[in-house]
Specification:
Chain lengths: 418, 207
């Protein structure tokens, strides 16, 4: 791409100005595309997921042809618990391990045989998106005290052998061999990452996010207990759940800062993806008791370290809107799925940046004209005053029609200028 | 509302189970106790989306299932009311079960016989289940955007088997809306499992 450096700088400034709840030159468009770049390039999801060269190829093509202000397709998350287990021993190693599945494709899943991921071309069809659902909880209800007292020891000795089938016996030949294989894989990572970032820079690419950290409740629900059992724990042992969240908050904030540093140094993006899942399902009282206090602590720590938390409120947040204004003004991006954006706007006014406005159902089932009309209406509504970023729901793009994605992009360029 | 119904509505797990055991031991009719549990579930379902949240529904489902485990051995051979059969499954490619399982618990509590096809259900399995169980209602669940195309395929398979006019299809999940419903050719859509149960109840005239 010609003038890649200039275009890149303009994107960086556009996104940062919007994040500060101010008016940039145009409404930015920034999306988590998951497998859409593969579909667009005519490559199977399986190849995009497992083949690092194909991954770079489809990502670069998409960046070149669509030229969005930010986009990314992170791959999976199964290595997070073993990464966290190492956090008290060696922070760099821990982060390398944790992000090996996020950026590195399916190798860690294949080597570790984890209970979390189902991947294209493995457990799933070759054009089915990777999914993250635990087979069964890897932490028992009576193990909260161990998690609370010695989180790293508990994760390594109890969770790791259950979560990774090939690490079931850490002192067996298979267990040690698996760790060595993982080490060999990690050693390849810097070269891949360097090549990826280098190629993408030529296309003036900026990630919507590259850094990330989960919050304690969602971490417990997605990686240790499972959705149903953690839900029952909220009623049966509320104090233990809260103590466990308390015990994990510091290390998860550190993960956000460490991945944020990698992202900032490699791409200039200070955004740290902070996904929230349980919020949709909790009562307002439960949200304030089990979820929000820890989210807020992590957000504040990230902001203090000059990062921009990108809070992705998945599902619906309509019953929890009064908590938004307790977050630092102009320092966070509030990203919504199905929450009514106009109600959000009423609550946060012009003091916070909001992101959202496009439903994947429209990109999949609508026509380009319908998409264009919807975009005009949405942009006209949220553009005034700045602080608005066009995006879809989390992981909402896979099956979108290519002509609709083009119509969406054109509409942003046409109607988004200030 | 009696004591058991009220304890379910208040999500008092230990109290519900204690009451069910005590009343059974005291010789009360297990069908009456079942009705009381069902009434509690209906009551808590009424608050869904307003004062009752999904975590409450999961807890209520757990309590109901635990109570059923105590009651079931005593109910063998007893005739309880049935509102008919429903086939339900999470569509092909999607392995999430939360919404589906909540719907199942509440359908059972309402008196439906539920044929649970599990997760990642291929189109043909829906067709086979409709034929085998002769069910008038099919529920398709899917949490993710990627479930939209598989829902369409499953409904097309039902039509190809000449069964489309014999069944009503309801789709449910976080990403469903009217656009999706029209696109896949469903009869109804919901984002909320309890709304789904209400629609199904309406369809069989049980509302």
């Amino acid at each position: 791409m010609d003038n890649a450096e200039e275009i890149y700088k303009a994107k960086l400034e556009r996104l940062e100005t919007a994040a500060a709840a101010k008016e940039p030159d145009r409404v930015p468009i920034a999306i988590n595309t998951t497998y859409f770049p593969a579909k667009y390039a005519g490559v199977s999801y399986q190849d995009m997921f497992h083949d690092n060269n194909k991954y770079i190829e489809v990502m670069a093509k998409f960046a070149r042809d669509f030229n969005w202000d930010g986009y990314n397709s992170l791959r999976s998350f199964e290595s997070v618990p073993i990464g966290l287990a190492l956090a008290g021993y060696d922070a760099d190693l821990a982060i390398g391990m944790a992000v090996s599945s996020v950026l590195g494709g399916g190798a860690s899943h294949d080597i570790l045989a984890d209970v979390y991921s189902s991947n294209p071309g493995r457990e799933l069809g070759k054009n089915v998106e990777s999914q993250f659902v635990m087979d069964k909880p890897v932490m028992k209800a009576d193990e909260y005290d161990s998690l609370i007292e010695q989180p790293f020891e508990f994760l390594m000795k109890t969770v790791v052998p259950r979560a990774y089938k090939n690490l079931a016996n850490l002192d067996s030949p298979k267990g040690v061999g698996t760790l060595l294989k993982m080490g060999q894989e990690l050693a390849k990572f810097p070269a891949f990452f360097g090549e990826f970032v280098g190629k993408m820079k030529e296309e003036a690419w900026l990630p919507w996010y590259l850094a990330l950290t989960p919050n304690p409740l969602d971490f417990i629900g997605a990686w240790l207990r499972d959705f149903d059992t953690l839900t029952l724990d909220l009623y049966r042992m509320p104090e233990k759940v809260k103590a466990a969240c308390e015990a994990l908050t510091g290390v998860l904030a550190a993960v956000g800062k460490l991945t944020g540093t990698i992202s900032r140094d490699a791409t200039g993006s200070r955004r740290v993806f902070c996904p929230t899942w349980y919020n949709t399902y909790l009562s307002p009282e439960q949200y304030r008791e089990f979820h929000f206090p820890y989210i807020k602590k992590i957000v504040n720590e990230l902001v203090e370290a000059d990062f921009t938390p990108l809070l992705c409120f998945q599902g619906r947040m309509d019953h929890l809107l009064d908590t938004l204004t307790e977050l630092p003004e102009g320092k966070v991006i509030l990203w919504f799925d199905k929450t009514d954006l106009s109600k959000v706007k009423e609550v946060v006014g012009d003091k916070y940046c909001i992101a959202g406005g496009i439903l994947s159902s429209l990109l999949i089932s609508g026509t380009p004209q319908q998409v264009k009309d919807h975009m005009k209406e949405t942009i006209d509504k949220y553009k005034p005053g700045g602080g608005y970023i066009v995006t879809t729901e989390f992981n909402g793009m896979g099956d979108a029609k290519i002509e609709n994605v083009k119509a969406m992009t054109e509409a942003v360029m046409e109607y988004g200028k200030y | 509302m009696n004591e058991i119904s009220e304890a379910i509505t208040n999500l008092e797990e230990e109290k519900v189970l204690r009451l069910v055991k005590e009343k059974l031991d005291a010789g009360e009719d297990p069908i009456k106790l079942l009705e009381a549990c069902r009434m509690g579930m209906t009551e808590i379902g009424k608050g869904s989306g307003d004062t009752v949240f999904l975590t409450d529904l999961i807890m209520a489902g757990e309590i109901f299932n635990e109570a059923m485990e105590i009651l079931m051995p005593k109910l063998v051979g007893a005739s309880t009311k049935s509102l008919g059969k429903v086939v339900i499954g999470t569509v092909e490619g999607d392995i999430h079960n939360i919404g589906k399982d909540i719907a199942i618990n509440f359908l059972k509590a309402e008196g439906f016989e539920v044929i649970d096809l599990g997760v990642d259900v291929p189109p043909q399995k829906f067709v086979d289940a409709i034929k085998e169980h002769n069910t008038p209602i099919v529920g398709m669940s899917g949490l993710l955007t990627l479930s939209i195309e598989p829902m369409k395929k499953a409904i097309e398979a039902i039509a190809a088997a000449n069964l489309r006019d014999k069944v009503k299809v309801i789709i449910g999940g976080e990403r469903t809306d009217q656009n999706v419903s029209d696109y896949v050719g469903a009869d109804a859509w919901v984002n909320d499992a309890i709304d789904g149960v209400k629609i199904i109840k309406n369809w069989v005239g049980g509302a």
